[in-house]
Design a protein that fits this description.
single chain, 273 residues, alpha+beta, 60s Ribosomal Protein L30, Chain: A, 2 domains, four-stranded mixed β-sheet
């Protein structure tokens, strides 16, 4: 019994000693491997952190790039809008310049055409002192004037009102305009003359026909002068010139003047007394 117990104890001691030795051996063998694994883990963590930082930096760069691209697009759009606005203004200025050129050309043409108008008829309407209404005799004279000029197609009528020198200049100018208005209203209402064909003005006491200070002189100055200007003759001549194939009439040459003798030349050079 004692021997069996002793043998069992020895066997247990032997197994225990061998197990401790094996565990220590295993620890010694695995310690460097664990150190390598820990080192690899540390490097992996560091590399992961670096990769994350790199991603963060790339995101920042990308964001700044996107902001820069957006700012560049906005600047380009602003510049394009500015350029378009400048082009629109330039176009508007060009249109205005063309319009002004056309208006100037039309004005020049109108002024040039005015030289073609010649006075063909006139009448003077007298007025009583401080009066601006038409008498039956005045209306009759205006009727005759318009009837005589009714065949004209290209014409205008000038109506100029005047006063004598009695009274202030402001009052006389207003009175002369009222006299001219009376004549214009009659021509438009009675004879249907378009208002754009009538040019009227009140000149007051200006341009007197008689500078005298008598009653008769003042009566002559209280008047309205009505003049009709026509360009029908000029238009007829221009139409004849424009007709193709029409020859101008030949002018008969003037007869030759006789040669003057020296005595006749001396007589022509002597001044008249």
């Amino acid at each position: 019994m004692t021997r069996t117990t002793l043998s069992a104890g020895l066997l247990a001691a032997t197994l225990l000693t061998g197990g401790c030795a094996t565990k220590k051996y295993v620890q010694n063998q695995t310690a460097p491997i664990q150190a390598k694994v820990d080192q690899v883990n540390d490097q992996t963590n560091k590399q992961g952190q670096q990769i994350q930082q790199t991603r963060t930096d790339l995101n920042g760069v990308d964001e700044r790039a996107q902001n820069g691209i957006s700012a560049a697009k906005e600047s380009a759009m602003t510049a394009q809008n500015t350029a378009q606005g400048a082009m629109d203004k330039a176009g508007t200025a060009s249109d205005l310049a063309n319009k002004d050129s056309e208006e100037i050309q039309s004005l020049r043409q109108s002024v040039s055409n005015l030289d073609d108008y010649k006075q063909v008829a006139d009448v003077t309407i007298p007025f009583a002192f401080n009066r601006y209404t038409l008498t039956p005799k005045d209306r009759e004279d205006l009727d005759k004037l318009v009837q005589n000029a009714s065949s004209n197609k290209h014409f205008f009528i000038a109506v100029e009102g005047f006063t004598d020198r009695t009274g202030s200049r402001q009052y006389n100018e207003a009175l002369s305009r009222r006299r001219a208005d009376a004549v214009t209203e009659y021509l438009v209402a009675k004879h249907d003359i378009p208002i754009y064909r009538i040019h009227q003005i009140g000149l007051g006491e200006a341009k007197p026909v008689d500078d005298g200070h008598t009653r008769a002189a003042r009566a002559k100055n209280r008047r309205v002068e009505v003049k009709i200007f026509s360009a029908d003759q000029s238009y007829s001549l221009s139409q004849l010139q424009l007709q193709p194939g029409q020859q101008q009439p030949q002018q008969t040459p003037a007869p030759a003047q006789p040669t003057a003798t020296p005595q006749q030349d001396q007589q022509q050079q002597q001044p008249q007394q």
